[in-house]
Amino acid sequence: xxxxxxxxxxxxxxxAQDLDIGSNTVQTYSxxxxxxxxxxxxxxxxxxxxxxxxxxxxALDREEQSEMxxxxxxxxxxxxxxxxxxxxxxxxLDANDNAPIFTQERYxxxxxxxxxxxxxxxxxxxxxQDAGVNGDISYQLSQAAGQSDSAFVIDPMTGEIKxxxxxxxxxxxxxxxYELVVQARDAGGLSSHSKVHIKVTDVNNYVPEIVxxxxxxxxxxxxPLGTVIxxxxxxxxxxxxxxxxxxxxxDSHPFRLEKSFDNYYRVVTAELLDRExxxxxxxxxRAADGGSPALQSSAVLALRVLDVNDNAxxxxxxxxxxxxxxxxxxxxxxLTVRATDADWGQNARVRY
Length: 352
Description:
The chain is an all-beta fold. The protein has four domains: 9-91, Cadherins (Immunoglobulin-like, Sandwich); 101-201, Cadherins (Immunoglobulin-like, Sandwich); 209-306, Cadherins (Immunoglobulin-like, Sandwich), CATH 2.60.40.60; 311-351, no CATH class. It is 0% helix and 45% strand. The chain is built from no helices and 25 strands. A four-stranded mixed beta sheet has the order 8-15-14-11, with no helix packed on it. A four-stranded antiparallel beta sheet has the order 16-18-21-20, with no helix packed on it. It has a four-stranded mixed beta sheet with strand order 17-23-22-19, with no helix packed on it. The chain starts with 9 loop residues before the first strand and ends in a 12-residue tail after the last strand.
């Protein structure tokens, strides 16, 4: 009997046979009293034309009960009364009256940005209480508005959502989250929907980038303290801790690092310079992100200290002495004095 049968529907049964005649033959039929779904109807439509029908009293639902059985008793009118019993088994045929139902209203998944193509992100599941082809489910995937270039595909039979391509994290703010809509559809055309929320997890795969914006390669040795020597910025295309960058410079140099704003830094003089002690510096700037393990990069600032005339000439000896014969001619060499200057270039040229 189809489960869509309306109450009042009738289903014929074969009548009971009794070899007696008259009042001794079959007079009444009855049904098991514990049965709430069916009753029996019987009578005569003409001479020698009796009928027996099972009448549906209550709507059926195959998903609640797919089979039921009850007894039909035929009783004659003799004395004593005699009866016969038969068992009636009802098999309820399925109708496509149930849509697929997802196990969750919203599925939440995470995916690493560097997962390869074909990786399974998550699996959705829908069930259908119908039987046979009415319970066969296929899945379809659609992407939210503004995300037409889908990076995901769903297996129509298993419900596995997979990557169609590696995710590009260059535009992290735009593609940090994906919202998908999954449809489960049975063979009878009934369907339901569920949302899938996928968060892309950043992988620390970008090295911090140092961009030197300006640098004074030649610095006078009388440069005041706090003078800006170089300005640079750092950027990391990762997100979260993976994109948080810390900068430092070599501690052995007379310079210090100051943060201007956001990701901009400047290198300033922290001590007075002296070209006569150190004439060149190679200042290493390092940038390291907060990933685990951390990625880092470096840049070298080659600085040359320019001379200032801050040193007087110095004689090799404080006192010179010589002996000179009185009859020497004019122009005779008496002695040679020598002075040196620690400065450089024109500032180091000594005249006597």
